[in-house]
Amino acid sequence: MSRLWFVPGQLNATESMSTSKKVITREEWEKKLKDVKIRKEDMNKLVMNFLVTEGYVEAAEKFRMESGTQPEIDLATITDRMAVKKAVQSGNVQDAIEKVNDLNPEILDTNPHLYFHLQQQRLIELIRYGKVEAALEFAQEELAPRGEENQSFLEELERTVALLAFEDIKNCPYGELLDLSQRLKTASEVNAAILTSQSHEKDPKLPSLLKMLIWAQNQLDEKAAYPRINDLSTATLEDPAV
């Protein structure tokens, strides 16, 4: 019967070698970064994509003039899209619906979830201002039929109507529906639908690239110590902890 013999301390040393991380100095890291060539045109397109998607029409126009970068869509459509978004954020949902239909009637015709959420937001606004009878009538006539066709719609409708059962609706179990975040959520959904209808990405590329950076750094952390970017707003390289 064979036996395995280990020199005392040998196993720990082997484990230490297998788990040790490579240390990359700031000088080495900055040299690697300089070796990466990125075209200015690509950077400009990334900036323009962010401005257009987020709706900064004045900044996009100024950037177009200064950099010569052409947007992928007509900048005039940004103003119309932002008007819809602003209307939802202000609680003027019916006005937003009319503006969407003026832009492209097919947006709501082909997106039942979006239309339901807009109508749900209208119901929330009626409840917010204490229009109980109008809210009940609107829920019964406009939302209940859609709830019968879709279980998820029915559940959302029940949660919304449940607000009427509480005197202090802001502090009830469903009070978050009255938060500004609910308006922003609906406005973001409308914004994405309009962008999609214009054959444009619904989300800007820049945040996705930053998420990829964070993911890549987390993966690299397991293998090396290197100058890391911890503050994305400044992109400052911090020396590796050795």
Can you walk through the features of this model?
The protein has helices spanning 10-19, 26-35, 40-54, 57-67, 76-89, 93-103, 106-109, 112-128, 132-149, 151-161, 180-197, 205-221; strands spanning 22-23, 224-225, 228-229, 237-238. With 242 residues, it is mostly helical. It has 2 domains: 22-72 and 203-242, Mitochondrial Import Receptor Subunit Tom20, Chain A, CATH 1.20.960; 78-197, no CATH class. It is extended and about 70 Å long.
For the structure shown, list the relevant keywords:
mainly alpha, CTLH domain-containing protein, 2 domains, two-stranded parallel sheet, CTLH_C
Write a brief structural summary.
With 242 residues, this protein is mostly helical.
Layout of strands and helices, then pairs:
Layout: H1 10-19, E1 22-23, H2 26-35, H3 40-54, H4 57-67, H5 76-89, H6 93-103, H7 106-109, H8 112-128, H9 132-149, H10 151-161, H11 180-197, H12 205-221, E2 224-225, E3 228-229, E4 237-238
Parallel strand pairs: 1-2
Antiparallel strand pairs: 3-4
Helix pairs in contact: 3-4, 5-6, 5-11, 8-9, 8-10, 8-11, 9-10
Question: If you compute it from the alpha carbons, what radius of gyration comes out, rounded to the nearest whole angstrom?
Answer: 27 Å
Low-pLDDT runs: 1-18
Derived from helix and strand composition plus strand pairing, the structural class reads: mainly alpha
- Can you give the helix content as a percent range? 55-70%
How many domains? The number is 2
- Outline: extended
Number of helices: 12
What is the makeup of the main sheet?
2 strands, parallel
CA distance, first residue to last residue: 45 Å
| Mean pLDDT across every amino acid position | 88
Number-wise, the strands total: 4
Order of helices and strands: HEHHHHHHHHHHHEEE
> What portion of the residues fall into strands of 2 or more residues?
under 5%
In the sheet with the most strands, the strands line up as 1-2
